[in-house]
Design brief:
The protein has one domain: Alpha-Beta Complex (Spore Coat Polysaccharide Biosynthesis Protein SpsA, Chain A). It is built from twelve helices and eight strands. InterPro entries: DUF1647.
């Protein structure tokens, strides 16, 4: 694992590094703390040891639960996966319409998987008949009780890892609020070359300001070690099917999801509003984004930029369409069947 990490970090890159120079007077942005008694290790071997430690390793029971989750997914080269519920049903129709028009004609031997995390029976039936995809009801009853709090997003790393178990080449996670440009194959080519494509933007808020202290405690890290790193967005991610990506990125992310103290260390009183700038760290929490950000930053430290998607802030591959709806698309599809 260490040799693979070193090799990845020695590859040539077309991405430019970003040096953080701001002090931490404005705690919202990525900044350089004056002191940090336990910074992230610059030693690749130490970082791999940390990533492979028991706290970030799935138990056999965890692993079997994900295997069962993957059991009905068809084996494919590329798997696009998302999840939806009744309150995002019309956005999902918009997203599926875009996939049918842009992605399906270009990406060969692919499967689109939708995990149902709260559709009505009527919505589920219509989706199954119209989406040209594979619909799976997420079995919340088989997982710890806190999984039923859908807003904790504990299901997200599990559906990605379950999809990876049936993928020959890539898994692409996407939220329902995005639409693809015709550059989708370019992004998959980057994922093939690099192993990972992340949505990282230099102007995004830093990790500790939008991550509760409980996650740092679980990971065994000091928040100050992450102040100069922006948080990764998880609305779109490309993972290549490699032993390194599965074991060093997906498994730690999934393991954190199984642990309430890691992924969801909050009560209803804790703030989940991460859109308003904060004046202190730990003022809100981004769940799956916080966990993934910490894991990939712990792994790659200041070389993380290599795995950021280029032009993501200029809609090079996708456009974010929050609130875009296509409430009649499935009905229109079914009229032609």
């Amino acid at each position: 694992m260490t040799a693979t990490l070193v090799q990845m970090l020695n590859e040539t890159t077309d991405m430019s590094s970003h040096t953080v120079t701001a002090n931490c007077d404005d705690i919202w942005i990525a900044c350089r703390p004056e002191t940090c008694f336990r910074p992230l290790s610059q030693n690749p071997k130490e970082r791999i040891w940390d990533i492979l430690s028991p706290k970030l390793t799935l138990t056999e029971q965890n692993r079997q639960q994900i295997v069962e989750l993957s059991s009905t997914i068809p084996v494919s080269d590329v798997i696009f996966v998302t999840a939806t519920s009744d309150n995002h049903y019309d956005e999902t129709q918009y997203s599926v319409h875009n996939l049918h028009a842009v992605v399906y004609p270009k990406v060969k031997n692919m499967t689109f998987v939708i995990f149902d995390i709260g559709l009505t029976p009527e919505q589920r039936e219509k989706t199954i008949n119209a989406c040209r995809c594979h619909v799976i009801v997420f079995p919340f009853e088989k997982f710890p009780s806190f999984f039923k709090e859908r807003g904790c997003y504990t299901w997200k790393p599990l559906i990605v890892m379950a999809s990876m178990m049936k993928s020959n080449k890539f898994v692409v996670y996407q939220d329902a609020s995005l639409s693809w440009k015709d550059t989708v194959l370019e992004l998959l080519d980057r994922g093939d070359k690099l192993g990972l494509q992340l949505w990282g933007v230099n102007g995004m808020h830093n990790i500790p300001v939008a991550t509760l202290k409980g996650m740092f405690d679980y990971m065994g890290d000091m928040p100050c070690a992450y102040l100069n790193y922006t948080q990764i967005q998880s609305g779109i991610i490309v993972f290549k099917q490699t032993p390194f990506i599965v074991r060093a990125v997906l498994e730690p992310w999934a393991k954190c999801g199984f642990e309430k103290d890691c992924f969801c260390p909050l009560t209803k009183e804790n703030s989940v509003d991460c859109f308003t700038p904060k004046k202190e760290i730990h003022m809100c929490h981004r769940f799956d984004q916080s966990a993934l950000s910490m894991i990939v930053t712990k792994l790659f430290v200041n070389e993380r930029y290599r795995y950021h998607m280029p032009g993501i802030d200029k809609d090079r591959y996708i456009a974010i369409n929050r609130g875009q709806r296509d409430p009649t698309y499935f009905d229109e599809v079914l009229k032609t069947v």
